[in-house]
Amino acid sequence: MLYPDTVEAEVLVHKPWFVATMFGIVLLLFMAFNLSATSFGELMRPVIGEPSISGLYGRFAIAFAIALIFTLNVVLIGFAPLKLQIGIVWLELLLLFIAFFETFHLSLPFIREKLPFLISQGVITTLYVSAISIVIASVIAVAGAVAKLSNNGFAYAIATFYTSFFRGLPLLMQVYLIYLGLPQLGFVINAVPAGILALSLCYGAYMTEIFRSGIQSIDRGQWEASRSMGFGFSLTMRRIILPQALPVIIPPTGNQFISMLKDSSLVSVIGVWELMFLARTLGQKTFQHMEMLISAAVIYWILSICLELIQSRIEQHYRRSKVR
Amino acid sequence: MTFWNRRQVTMAALALVLGACPAHAGAVLDRVTAAGTLKVATDANWAPQSFMNANNELDGFDVDVAKAIGEHLGVKVEFVTPGWDIITAGNWAGRWDMHVGSMTPTKKRAEIFDFPAVYYYTPAAVAVHKDSMAKTLADLDGKVVGATSTSTFEAYAKKDLTLDAAGAPPFEYKLNPKEVRSYENSTTAFDDLRLGDGVRLDAVVSSLPSILDAEKAGYPIRQVGDPVFYEPLAIAIEHGDAELSAKLADAVKAMKEDGTLSKLSEKWYGQDYSKAN
Predict the structure, then answer these.
(1) What's the rounded Cα separation, in Å, for the pair A145 and A162?
(2) pTM recorded for the entire structure
(3) Greatest CA separation found in chain A?
(4) What are phi and psi of B59, to 5 degrees?
(5) Within 10 A of A56 (CB to CB), how many other CB atoms are there?
(6) Exposed/middle/buried for A58, CB within 10 Å: 0-12, 13-18, 19+?
(7) Rg of chain A on CA atoms, in Å
(8) Is the Cβ pair A180, B81 closer than 8 Å?
(9) Mind listing the pLDDT tens digit for each residue in B110-139?
């Protein structure tokens, strides 16, 4: 069920057929890889003897152990209450990720040395470029959505042309076109404004469509009822339609903000010293770019998590009426 | 308004509208001396020519040369780091005044840029994985070769290289690859080469200094054969400012004569690349 109901049923991960299938699949999966040369093999040394000569038996024993740990883990998590389950699974996935990056043998002192600059120059630039673009894009989106829903031929034509054009071109190309193209018209624009302009126009086009569909999702009867009470367009929009449309609009808009935060990295091609640019540049001389790329990746992730949390708070706010 | 007056106004309006039209003589130089700063475009990802050093500042041979030129002109130097394709697209529109970033002067580029002075020559070489069996360049016939896209190295691998600038040493094509793969910069090409001999690439054409640097940083690669060509590298400015061009040519000439360039080359490459061979 996609919502918690009151019908008692056995947990899926405790059903014998499911546990057996899971065990079998994991066993077969890990039989397919030879892990005897890794640290797993070393751990299993007491059971399988010298890992390198353990052959098929070694492979089976390692896969069996892994399948056992995995299945036991899942079954045990099944007993925990929902909140704890979510926490444990998150933590385990995170640990697996860290273990994965551990295999890159990254130089931590180098990361520590570069991190302040990465944040003071890169993150700040990324944040203000995205923040300004988000504000401008939202304004464009509201105007575009109203224009697309209007009966005015000019407004409709301009809005549809705009969304079609800016949704239809790759963002990278828009960055180039604005930065290199506008000076041809005699309007010399610097790298940061050019990047903000490209991001705002592109995301404004996507968000126009989100806002339009959100407004359209409100039943026509609401407009008619509001009109019959003598409300004008502006009042209807502000008091009747938008408050109902916002819960529909907010989740995809949050998506757009997260995606814009990351797409602001495309501005690095015109030489803006934001996070992506520094990530590609700082480790270059000493060939430690893996360190910088992964640090930047983690920073982007943390920033996105912040946006996710804000989004879920707002969604909770609008879900108040649906809580039982 | 007399006829002449009107025409002047029209011209001024046209100039405003077109904006990007070539600067008239001395305009860039005037702007530089008026502002007291010379804006230099360079790459931030092209060690040891230009890169971010431990203090997070731009550093390198090209950067030092640009600073030395600024000293000669008596102005401060300021760096901007647009992508290579943005620089070579031309139409700088006053965003920066000159480019010191190891640009090879070719006739095609000369349609967009003036090259006041060649300031050094880089040997280009071929690198292979340490496990490669190749002993000479002929062993790489029919293999997959990587190079920075739109660079002279890529042009050489594709047998499409024209070094037609004055003073460019002659060369011949010794490489017959099956396929040439393009990369954003030489490091990404080295990254693919390090995966193993022939995993993604069999060889990379790049500048000898960057190959040696990568080797020093622990990349499992080595140079194969002699340098394939010597590339003259010049300062680039936009057309239309003969005075700036002359000033830059003088500055580089003076730096060659008083040994500044040789010293900088020794500092960054351990060898004097300010003369061919």
Answers:
(1) 11
(2) 0.81
(3) 87
(4) -150, 165
(5) 9
(6) buried
(7) 27
(8) no
(9) 888 999 999 999 899 999 999 999 999 999
Burial of B146: CB neighbours in 10 Å, binned 0-12, 13-18, 19+: buried
Write b or e for each residue in B232-259: b if 16 or more Cβ atoms lie within 10 A of its Cβ, otherwise e. bbbbbbbebbeebbebbbebbeebbeee
Does residue B133 belong to the interface with chain A, where contact is any CB pair within 8 Å?
A: no
pLDDT at A286: 80
A109 CB near a chain B CB, below 8 Å?
Answer: no
In a 3-state reduction of DSSP, which class is residue B127? Answer: strand
Residue-level pLDDT at A214: 94
Type of residue numbered A181: G
Q: Which residues in B lie closer than 8 A to residue A270 (C-beta atoms)?
A: 82-83, 86
Identity of the residue numbered A109 = P
Asked if A56 is an interface residue toward chain B (Cβ–Cβ < 8 A), one would say: no
Please tell me the distance from the alpha carbon of residue A90 to that of residue A308, in angstroms, as a whole number. Answer: 15
Looking at residue A170, what is its pLDDT?
95
**Which residue shows structure tokens 């501005």?**
A267
What b/e string do you get for A12-46 counting C-beta neighbours within 10 Å, with b at 16 or more? ebeeeebbeebbeebbeebbeeebbeeebbeebee
Over the stretch A35-64, which tens digit does the pLDDT of each residue have?
A: 877 777 788 888 877 877 777 888 888 889
- Residue with tokens 């680039």, as numbered in its chain: B236
Q: Give me the pLDDT at residue B180, please.
A: 93
Q: In which residue are the tokens 């920033």 written? A: A303
CB A190 within 8 Å of CB A175: no
Tokens 């109902």, residue located: A244
Whether A281 sits inside 8 A of B44 (CB atoms) is yes
For residue A176, list chain B residues with Cβ-Cβ distance below 8 A.
86
Q: Which of these, B242, B259, B193, B243, lies nearest to B222 by C-alpha position?
A: B193
